[in-house]
Amino acid sequence: MSDYPHLHSSCLNKLTLNPEDRIAEILKPRWIGYPLAHKTLQRFDDLLRHPKVSRMPSLMLIGNTNNGKTDLIKKFCQTHLPSNNENGEHIVAPVIYVQAPPSPNEADLYSVILSSLYERVPSASTSAKRNKTISVLKEIGLKVLCIDELHNSLAGSSIKRQQFLNALKYLGNELSISFIASGTEDLLRAVSIDNQIQNRFQPMLLPRWKLNKDFKQLLCTFESILPLKSPSNLHSTMLCKQIYNLSEGSIGELSTLLNQAAIYALRNNQECITLKTLSDCGYIAPSERNREVSIRL
């Protein structure tokens, strides 16, 4: 039996590192699984396995900023990485990830898709970019195109938004592919101008966390991968409530808070997170940050 039952087995070897090296481990990207995340990834996998039909289904992952949308999409993409294609000019990539262009510009959409595949982007007309994009995506066997932060591309005029949505529909129809798009609630409002897009993209909501047993279990998961030698008991009533109030129900903020607290603890010769650690580590809650910005402006 481990001397550190609060830690996951994969974390035990990190305890032999000096504090600064443990801090480096804390700062590395990591995947935190939880029930809704597993359910969401299953829905993504269902899209990948869906047989080709005239109108392929698609999903919109909707949630507040810093609440795990990008992590979920990237996790799905990392599970389905491209493979070499020795008999062809292109890799085989059933899933690709792109970040939405900053404005509703059809040509920019094709440019970010081609760039993500390290393809030369034609400097000619939009139609030339469209044709090359379609040709390349057919070559790689694309099945699911993941577009992160799509609400950013739909912030322009209604005419521009409609043209951009038409481009997505055209790609979907021409290639018989599904889309996974992520965005804030602004994305739902933006696509409301097009009934066909609304019908194709089923929304999946990623709500803020509530102060309940699921949140306590999430804290246990976080604690199991933070390389601290003593148990913090983050799920205990006082700590749990304070952590929830500070992170305001956002998993991204929760990760930042616990990282910051663990780093503060290590740099102050402590091996657990306490209420005092949370108070002294320098973390500022999102609403407080916004309030400070408003005052200064």
TrEMBL record:
Family annotation (Pfam families): TniB (PF05621)
Protein name: AAA family ATPase
Highest taxon in the source lineage: Bacteria
